[in-house]
Structures are given as C-alpha cells and as structure tokens.
Amino acid sequence: MWLEKDVQQLFSPKLDKFLADRFVEGTCPKPECAYEDARGDQCDKCGGLLNAIDLVNPRCKFTGCTPEIRTSKHLFLNLPKIESELKVWLNEVTSEWSNNAKQIFDSWIKKGLEPRCMTRDLKWGVKVPKEGFDHKVFYVWFDAPIGYPSITAEYTPKWRDWWQGKDVKYYQFMGKDNVPFHSVLFPSYLLGTGKPWNLVNVINATEYLNYENGKFSKSRGVGVFGNQAAETNIPSDVWRFYLIYMRPEVQDTEFQWSDFQLKNNSELLNNLGNFINRGLSFVVKFYDQKVPSAEINGNMRAWVAEVNVLLKEYIECMESNQQREGLRRVLAISKLGNKLIQTWQPWVKVKSKDPALRNEASACVMLSANLVFLLSSLLEPFMPMTSFEIARQLGVARAQIPSKFGAFLEKDHKVYESRPLFRKIEDEEVKEYRALKGDDSQKPIESSGG
Questions:
Q1: Chain-centroid distance, C-alpha 12
Q2: Measured between alpha carbons, how far is residue 421 from residues 68, 191, 280, 444 in Å?
Q3: HSE-up of 252 (CA within 13 Å, CB side)?
Q4: How far is residue 303 CA from its own chain's centroid?
Q5: Percentage helix, strand, coil for the chain under 3-state DSSP, each rounded to 5
Q6: Within the chain, what is the greatest distance between any pair of CA atoms?
Q7: Is 118 helix (H, G, I), strand (E, B) or coil?
Q8: Which of 42, 134, 242, 432 has its CA at 20 to 30 Å from residue 394's CA atom?
Q9: Cβ contacts of 247 within 8 Å, gap of 6 or more
C-alpha cells in the first residue's frame, strides 16, 4: 500500500523550516477560482484540495516571505491499488449519504485516484516508525481518523464489537470540506489492512456556515468561536439551538448577530419559553401543582391530530438526518401549544361557575402539561440542558421520544415549579458580542496538518 517518492516542498528561509501546507497562502491555481487567499491544503472559496507547491505567488503565512522549493523523500498511500475495492463499497452504501457527500466522492472516483502523500517534514506529530523516515511525522489526516477506533478502545474493552462486529450502523457528520478524508482516505486505510473493519454507512455533510457577509476565519479574526461563545452571557443550549436552526443542510447559510438575537427573542423566548412557562404556571397557580384530568372535546381532538402530524414529521426528519427541519417541527409544535392556550383561555374559564367551561379549562391545562412533557423529550437531541430543566420543573425523568401524543402524565401528577427558561438578548449585548474577534495570532506553530 506504500510508495516512496521524492517531493518538492516549500521551505521558509526566514523560519528555517519546511512549512505545513496550511501555513502557505497564495492564489488558488484553478483558473475558474483564482481566490487570492487560498491555503496550501485547501481553497476556502472553491473547496478544492490543493498541494501547497501549486499555489500561485505563494507566501509564508507567518513572515510573508516567498518560500523556496526543496526536495524531500516521503511515503505515499498507493490509492490506485485499492480503488476497485473502494468502488465496490461505494455502490453498496452511498444511497443514504447527503447529496454533497455523494458528489464529492464521485468526483474523486471519476478523475481516478492518485497516490497521496502521508508524511510531513515537521517536528510535531506522530513519528513515522520506518528507517530513514524517523525525522518525519504522519500527515494529520492519516493518523487522526485512526483515533476514532483508538478512542473507542479507551472507552470500552469491547471496542471490536463496534468497529469489527455485526449489527452496527456507522454515521459521520461533517462539513463538506472534510468529506474526501472520510469517504476516500480513511476507508482506503481500513480496506488496505485486509481486516473486517466496519466502514462508514452514512456520511451527512453540510454546506458552509458563513459569518456576517463573509467567511469564518480564525486566523484572520473573522467570526465567533467556542472560546468567545463561552465568555458571553448566552447559555450553550442557545448556541446549539441557533447553529442547528441555521444548519446548512442543502445550501450555505450565514451567522448574523441580529438574526441570532431575533431567533432567541422570538422562537425561544416568545414561542417555546412562553408556552412552557404558561403551561406549567397554570398547573401551579390554579390546580395546586397537580395536573388535572378532564374530557376533551372535538375541537381539542382536532388539535391533538395536528400535534401528531408534526410529531410524525419530526420523527421522519430525525431518521433522515434532517436535524434542522426536525428542530423546526419542535417549534411548530410549541406554537400549537400557544394556540391551544389562546383559544381556550384557561385563566378565564377556570373561574367560571359553568361546569362545562371549567372542564374546558382543565382539559386545556391537562393537554398543555402533556405537551410540555413531549417538548422536553423532543428537545433533548438539540438542547439537552433545556430538556433536563423542563423535565425538572415538570417533575419527571427524561423520557424516550414517543410515536404519538397522549396522556403521558397521570392525574394529579405534581409539577415541581414553573420558571422562565430563556431571557431576552438586548441590542447592547449584540453590539458588544459583534466586536468579539477570533484568535488572530500569527505565531508559527508546528502542525502535521495540511
């Protein structure tokens, strides 16, 4: 599976070292692109994988100097030798892949696989255990995927049940720029061993999430990243919510601070949080914290049918890896909860002297409490801490997602309390957060990447 070849590489005379591909910048060599800030490993504009030496007008990212071309011997993975096996596997598994993952894989196969360099002239990384190559390290996209089974082995001594056993369906989720490494390179490593490794069954790749009319770039300080998000006064579940709400499943989407604020204040605070808070507060205030039991009328049954339609769609979305659409079904179900309360106005009817109206109030509150239970379970894949908090206030343990809406809570089930789940994000906060910058450090570091 291995070949030895002499390779021309870029060397920074000012740093006196070979440069990792991603530490070289220049113009994309593809004439239809010609992006001036392409990296040596990949172009962020066209998404193509590159060799640093092919960049037009290359420059060292750290010093700006023009790198020199020097020759060095490296190990290559002999991909053409495994190509026929890879094609057989492709025909067996890609039916459930996202369209962009299929297209990227197909493009690699159609142009024919070529030997791929798997070593780098760097000090940091996994050393190559081969005589004559002991001063080199493995390319990060060779050793990193091997970490998937190795970390499983750290987790459980039964790791082979997952990686070489039967009855396993293996999913991967990633941005589309990582598809070649997981659809071509890593499966090729596993096939090349000749051992019965489980290869990925489903690759679900997203398009790009852009930032405020531009592209995220940590090196250029463009965007908001995990360390900045952690420093804000915004809970992690709100970040999860928005990133999934804007998940670029079929086309590029964009992170906008103003939209982030709008979605928090409208969808979380005014829709989801408002319904759950009102639904539980009615139980606490009017029914001594105990969920009432009552007969529902025909109109309420029609409302239940609407909930079940959305619940069915939610399950279908989740089973087909459409997480964004699944989350939006949760919000649609919450809107039905608000509609129920506004239609039946239990805060008015509970005080009526008419037994029929009081029954309607009890039925509305009963349905609301059970819908809160349902929302808690539906939210767990997206907002786990919020799901836990809803369950705590409701006084229940976490539950599996049901196939149909119904009376999940017994009569007189005690609700613990009702407290607001979300808060409003103010304009001043957004102004402050928009000024956050990514890490624009230009310190030269060792990396086996690119």
A1: 36
A2: 58, 49, 12, 44
A3: 15
A4: 33
A5: 45, 15, 40
A6: 93
A7: coil
A8: 242
A9: 206, 209, 253, 323, 324
Number of helices (H), then strands (E), in the chain = 16, 13
SS3 440: coil
Structure tokens at 183: 């659809």
Label residues 100-137 b or e (16+ Cβ within 10 Å = b). Answer: bbbebbeebeeeebebbbbbbbbeebeebeeeebeebb
φ, ψ dihedrals at 127, nearest 5°: -65, 145
Q: 3-state class of 414 per DSSP?
A: strand
The string of DSSP codes covering 221-247 is: TBS--HHHHHHSSS-HHHHHHHHHHT-
**359, amino acid identity:** N
What single-letter amino acid sits at 146?
I
Question: What's the pLDDT tens digit per position in 129-183?
Answer: 999 898 899 988 899 999 999 999 999 999 999 999 999 999 999 999 899 999 9
In percent, the amount of the chain with pLDDT more than 70 equals 96
pLDDT of residue 437: 57
**What's this model's pTM, rounded to 2 decimal places?**
0.84
Token pair listed for 343: 């239609």
Phi, psi of 266 (to 5 degrees): -95, -55
The three-class DSSP label of residue 20 is: coil
Of 41, 45, 44, the closest CA to residue 55 belongs to 41
CA angle, 219 then 222 then 228, to 5°: 90
Radius of gyration of the chain (CA): 28
Terminal-residue alpha carbon distance, the chain: 21
User: DSSP secondary-structure letter at 127?
Assistant: B
